[in-house]
From TrEMBL:
<protein>
    <submittedName>
        <fullName>DNA polymerase V subunit UmuC</fullName>
    </submittedName>
</protein>
<dbReference type="GO" id="GO:0005829">
    <property type="term" value="C:cytosol"/>
</dbReference>
<comment type="similarity">
    <text>Belongs to the DNA polymerase type-Y family.</text>
</comment>
<dbReference type="GO" id="GO:0006281">
    <property type="term" value="P:DNA repair"/>
</dbReference>
<keyword id="KW-0234">DNA repair</keyword>
<keyword id="KW-0741">SOS mutagenesis</keyword>
<keyword id="KW-0742">SOS response</keyword>
<feature type="domain" description="UmuC">
    <location>
        <begin position="5"/>
        <end position="190"/>
    </location>
</feature>
<dbReference type="InterPro" id="IPR036775">
    <property type="entry name" value="DNA_pol_Y-fam_lit_finger_sf"/>
</dbReference>
<dbReference type="InterPro" id="IPR050116">
    <property type="entry name" value="DNA_polymerase-Y"/>
</dbReference>
<dbReference type="Pfam" id="PF11799">
    <property type="entry name" value="IMS_C"/>
</dbReference>
<dbReference type="Pfam" id="PF00817">
    <property type="entry name" value="IMS"/>
</dbReference>
<dbReference type="GO" id="GO:0009432">
    <property type="term" value="P:SOS response"/>
</dbReference>
<keyword id="KW-0227">DNA damage</keyword>
<dbReference type="InterPro" id="IPR017961">
    <property type="entry name" value="DNA_pol_Y-fam_little_finger"/>
</dbReference>
<dbReference type="GO" id="GO:0042276">
    <property type="term" value="P:error-prone translesion synthesis"/>
</dbReference>
<dbReference type="InterPro" id="IPR025188">
    <property type="entry name" value="DUF4113"/>
</dbReference>
Length: 425
DNA sequence: TCTGGGGTCCTAGGACCC
DNA sequence: TCTGGGGTCCTAGGACCC
């Protein structure tokens, strides 16, 4: 049976989430900002039409914001995460297999669907059901491979006549569309690669599809070879039946205002280490290595710059916040230099393993039972932190206000906090 | 004044071994 | 002038994704 994928992708996801609870903004241009209200990370249809670009620093577009009355929102990941779950739940009821690819998109397995109903009408059903259940608009691209489904979704978004659904299972249709799509729009072809490809005369998706895969593999990499095959309808990215465990966990932030003192940086990285370890325990994993980094603001070329990072392999894999915080701090201290404005820092946990593959430290001095006690302590802390507003934390972690993120345009937690439910008046 | 955060995969090149 | 060869493992960094 022919494999068929659908890619369902929410339209302007973060901006749509914000508009969902603000019907008064229905036709108003809306943009959502990154952490610290730094860059534009999402734009409503109206904001795109005004030429607001993805990723621009918000202070570069102050005049457009004033001129057009663009509404700003600080990113509200609690809200987006909750609405994302609702969308995915709806999709899981519609298709036998759903692969959640990111917060706002998922691949559906539509293999065999065609025997019951046309793919296009199934796509419309998906789109209508999601908007009915969640209020969020989506587009649906249908094709024999993931890369072509991405392309179909691109067309569904770009061409209004499609009404948000494109069935790209027909080869003639694939080729006609590919001839219209610039090569940089192909999934897996980024800025660097598209510049090089254009230099070779490959400017659209069709020219890439018709290029020789093994030649381009030698010149670039196996990734591009796979992309070419996928454009030709040969699937190279199969279904994963078991979700793959994470391989690394990152926690990093830019600071709302720069930090100078070692003690401030210590507080920050201790907090990142703690949060990263919480994620680790949530996935029931143990870290075998960790890395800490920090840096000044590289955009401030007028200021002295310094950045550094260090990593260490742990003798015993752990999920104990105290051990990880202690390691992170002992890496940080010798790298610290006085006299700089530090703008960002982070902690990365890697070499992640699950409990059954964990290897004990032959030379560990801990008495029997020590490990169990640590595990119990951590799970009690996690439980308290889940339930309570006042967090339990180690003495090293910063209090909530030490270097608070700028979030001047934050919307309420409409769906996850009883006190912030939307009200109808 | 002000420029995000969190991931994955692949490759090249060095270290080491016989 | 000529400077072994080939395998494995690991790491850092690049490129991509959303």
């Amino acid at each position: 049976m022919k494999t068929v994928f659908a890619l369902v992708d929410c339209n302007n996801f973060y901006a749509s989430c914000e508009k969902l609870f603000r019907p008064d903004l229905r036709d108003t241009p809306v943009i959502v900002l990154s952490n610290n209200d730094g860059c534009v990370v999402a734009r409503s249809r109206e904001a795109k039409a005004l030429g607001i670009k993805m990723g621009v620093p918000v202070h570069h577009i102050r005049s457009e914001i004033r001129l057009h009355g663009i509404q700003l929102f600080s990113s509200n990941y609690t809200l987006y995460g909750d609405l994302s779950r609702r969308v995915m739940t709806t999709l899981e009821a519609l298709a036998p297999r759903v692969d959640v690819y990111s917060i706002d998109e998922a691949f559906l397995d539509l293999t065999g669907v065609e025997r019951a109903v046309s793919l296009e009408s199934f796509g419309r059903q998906v789109k209508d059901t999601v908007v009915q259940d969640t209020g969020l608009p989506v587009c649906v691209g249908i094709a024999p491979t993931r890369t072509l489904a991405k392309l179909a979704n691109y067309a569904a978004k770009k061409y209004r006549a499609t009404e948000g659904v494109v069935d790209l299972t027909d080869i003639g249709r694939q080729r006609r569309l590919m001839a219209l799509v610039p090569v940089e729009e192909v999934w897996g072809v980024g800025r660097k690669l598209s510049t090089k490809l254009q230099g070779m005369g490959i400017t659209n998706a069709l020219e890439l599809a018709d290029a020789d895969p093994s030649t381009l593999r030698k010149q670039f990499s196996v990734v591009l070879e796979r992309t070419i095959r996928e454009l030709n309808g040969i699937g190279c990215i199969p279904w994963e039946d078991v979700p793959q465990p994470k391989k690394q966990i990152m926690c990093s932030r830019s600071f709302g205002s720069p930090l100078k003192a070692l003690s401030d940086l210590e507080e920050a990285v201790a907090q990142f280490a703690t949060r990263a370890t919480e994620k680790l325990r949530k996935g029931e994993q143990y870290a075998g290595a960790l890395m800490v980094f920090f840096r000044t603001n590289s955009f401030r070329t007028d200021l002295p710059q310094y950045s550094n990072s260090a990593s260490v392999k742990l003798i015993t894999s752990t999920q104990d916040s105290r051990a990880i915080v202690q390691q992170v701090l002992s890496l940080l201290r010798p790298m610290y230099r006085n006299g700089y404005d530090y703008a960002k820092a982070g902690v990365m946990l890697s070499d992640l393993v699950n409990a059954t593959t964990i290897q004990d430290d032959l030379f560990a001095s801990a008495s029997p039972g020590e490990g169990d006690r640590a595990v119990r302590l951590m799970s009690v802390i996690d439980e308290i932190n889940r339930k309570s507003r006042t967090k339990v934390r180690s003495a090293r972690q910063a209090g909530p206000s030490a270097y608070a993120m700028r979030r001047e345009h934050l919307s309420p937690a409409y769906t996850t906090n009883w006190t912030q439910l939307p009200s109808v008046t």
